[in-house]
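Task 17 of the worksheet. Students: predict the tertiary structure of the chain below and write it out as structure tokens. Keep your answer in the requested format; marks are given for formatting as well as content.
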Amino acid sequence: MFRQAAYDEPLIRDMRSGTTYRVPGEHTETPEIPDSLVRKEINIPNVSEYDVVRHFTRLSEMNYSVDTGIYPLGSCTMKFNPKYADVMASWSEFRDVHPLRPQETVQGNLRIMYELQEYLKAISDMDAVSLQPLAGADGEFTGISIIRKYFMDQGTDSERREVIVPDSAHGTNPASAAMAGYDVVEIPSTPSGTVDLDALKSVTGRNTAAFMITNPNTLGIFDGGIAEIARIIHEAGALLYYDGANFNAILGITSPGLMGFDVVHFNLHKTFATPHGGGGPGAAPVGVKKFLEKYLPTPIVEKNGDFYSFKDVGDKSIGKIGPYYGSFMVLLRAWAYIRYHGRDGLEAISRRAVLNTNYLERRISGSFRPSNNSIKKHEVVVSASGTGKTANDVAKYLLDMGMHPPTIYFPLIVKEAMMIEVTETVSKKDLDAYADAMLASLKEDAKTSASRPVNTKVTRIDEVRAARDLELTWNDIHS
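Model answer:
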């Protein structure tokens, strides 16, 4: 057996002074590692530093990111992440603070959290905000859990067992509702892409707990019937849930609160330019109207005079959603982004995002058919149907041109869909280059198009084989 050497005294570092101490005490050895998991020999190549640097630099250049080019994944809002926020998050005063430090020693951190709560309340016209949820889907689950706790308190939870979603909804919406124990009822959209009010009325009733919707929706359309939707839902005694994925289109222009929503989650990585994806920590604060405040995850941050502290929400709280108090470094970045731009700057962000989206649509709509003819907001959905190419063909061509393709084949209600969200951080030069590449993809002959991509590390997969042979093993990968 391989055994790591034990040590008598562990080290602990005081984050305030930087001093390292040895803590006396008796400590056990690291658990034994089974022989089957121990490497028998280590073949480390003997290479120069120059070769090592070249190798890892080449690997880094194979990655595509918001720092290297346009990243127009529809419904994901992959905008540039400003470096001032990253620099702030690297400061040891934030980075090295333990979450269980005494509150009087972390007043700056608590002030940032409190101010972010207040900013998000003002932006959304909600009455209370929790910063605790750790990702968009986590925020959704939190919001739906609050709704369920509310109906438990009303004594009607056993009756209100359904959550309604439109057929254009993000997949996380029905998933979050199902995880919270609800039955999901899907309703169709109108030909123009908005909520079918007659369909909504037909399924809304005493069994309805909530209606989950994004506005603007997944087609990039602002649903002008939202006031009527709110009336239908509220008259049935149900609640209206706002998926904040598309908030980037309405900052400073309107808000979920003004539209009649009761619960909202914020995707900080989408609207407020914090890092997105990659399996790392996220943040999706949840805002609620006053009558739901007592159900928020506990604790929240409050201010008494000049002192900031954690406040227990009370015995009606749904409890803790994640460890400690949320992803502080992500929250810090969002706070910095909001402070940097201010009220007018946030509104300008939305207006430019809408402008960029509609400019790109005009550039390509002569060849790619838009899902409808209305003004788009944060994104546009076009179809490759009728062009002689598939959405997949266009996507592979863009990869060979060194550009990230849009989301394809979603939403499912649009045939050969390509969902494009260019955000406000993309320049006109980038928009034109992207439009030119999409249009150029249609001019290739079928043989060349089918062979793409050829410039990427991984070429096009055998989709027929992938569909027929669903078993994947380690040997398959390396054969």
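Marker's comment: The chain has two domains: 85-341, 343-468. The domain at 85-341 is CATH 3.40.640.10 (Aspartate Aminotransferase; domain 2).
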